[in-house]
TrEMBL record:
GO terms for molecular function: ATP binding. It is found in: Cytoplasm. Its main location: cytoplasm. It holds the Pfam family MreB_Mbl. Belongs to the FtsA/MreB family. Forms polymers. GO terms for cellular component: cytoplasm. InterPro entries: ATPase_NBD, MreB, MreB_MamK-like. Keywords: ATP-binding, Cell shape, Cytoplasm, Nucleotide-binding. This is Cell shape-determining protein MreB. The gene is mreB.
């Protein structure tokens, strides 16, 4: 029976969907706006993101995934179903086969939750693949050769670091330090330093327009508005790149340490390959200014940011869908 195969990058910050033969057909924030009175979902995706921090009391815009895993099962299911209906892949006769990416060290309970949510949203067979592996494929790395490839995938909730060879993960680490943590640190810094409260969206603007993690790597400034904690009134301040670099030092150092520990656990032959080939960075966090320079300096290997890092995982699911029958057979054995 003809059925559509689809790949889903179920991210903490964004959901991307790849349909076989059509490419990436959806890229929307992982946000759902809920009416707390009725428990009904009012908006999903981009429409719901517009509501973050701007809703009356009875409407809450929530993100059902936290740190790369499902924090709220029912809302995740509502979100997935909405997106699948939107791209119109289900027919009356057949349900799609779905390939979903997960962080490397999630528990079997968390895996089961992701599978169940996808099944309830209308999937026929659900396959799970580890995110750094899929990201590496999507970034154009040939991971099926007997040589070492290293990928650092920085998402919204987790950073997945892995060394791959022969189509599989050799060493890996997944830490809960990623894009959201950067936003939080910026928020916290502005609050402590300037006694000013800002929202998530403002923190994200600072991250994109001003932030750098490489000392002296950037010299931008930005006027931002928020609420003064003392007077309670709106106030404008100017933030500069070098102070944001200081604010982001802690999460960045954790990420560098995780990458170093993955390299330390890698067999020497594969380490030698990584010196030749370098490290590829994927995910939205790879767009953070100076992060490639900093990693290159700390790991002492070349570091490259993938083309379109935010869609590497979705593209990778697309390439893996080409071999989905093989994957299906493997899972049945």
């Amino acid at each position: 029976m003809f059925s559509r195969d689809i790949g889903i990058d179920l991210g903490t910050a964004n959901v991307l969907i790849y349909v076989k033969g059509r490419g990436i057909v959806l890229d929307e924030p992982s946000v759902v706006a809920i009416d707390t009175g009725t428990g009904r979902a009012l908006a999903v995706g981009e429409e719901a993101r517009q509501m973050v921090g701007r809703t009356p009391g009875n409407i809450v815009a929530t993100r059902p995934l936290k740190d790369g895993v499902i924090a709220d099962f029912d809302i995740t299911e509502v979100m997935l179903r909405h997106f699948l209906n939107k791209i119109n892949v289900k027919s009356f006769l057949s349900k799609p086969r779905i390939l979903i990416c997960t962080p490397t060290n999630i528990t079997s309970v968390e895996k089961k939750a992701i599978k169940e949510a996808a099944e309830k949203s209308g999937g026929k067979q659900i396959f799970l693949e580890e995110e750094p592996k899929v990201a590496a494929i999507g970034a154009g790395m040939d991971i099926f050769q007997p040589s070492g490839n290293m990928v650092v995938d920085i998402g919204g909730g987790t950073t997945d670091i892995a060394v791959l060879s022969m189509g599989d993960i050799v060493t890996a680490s997944s830490i809960k330090m990623a894009g959201d943590k950067f936003d939080y640190e910026i928020l916290d810094y502005i609050k402590k330093t300037y006694k000013l409260l800002i929202g998530e969206r403002t923190a994200e603007q600072i991250k994109i327009n001003v932030a750098t993690v490489f000392p002296g790597g950037r010299n931008e400034e930005l006027d931002i508005r928020g609420r003064d904690m003392v007077s309670g009134l709106p106030r404008t301040i100017t933030v500069k790149s070098d102070e944001i670099q200081q604010a982001l030092q802690e999460p960045i150092s954790h990420m560098v340490m995780a990458a170093k520990s993955v390299l330390e656990r890698t067999p020497p032959e594969l380490s030698a390959d990584i010196i030749d080939r370098g490290v590829i960075m994927t995910g939205g966090g790879a767009l953070l200014h100076g992060i490639d320079q900093l990693f290159a300096e700390e790991l002492m290997v070349p570091v490259l940011v993938a083309e379109e890092p935010m869609s590497c995982v979705a593209k990778g699911t697309g390439l893996m869908l080409e071999h989905i029958d093989k994957i299906a057979k493997k899972k049945l054995i």
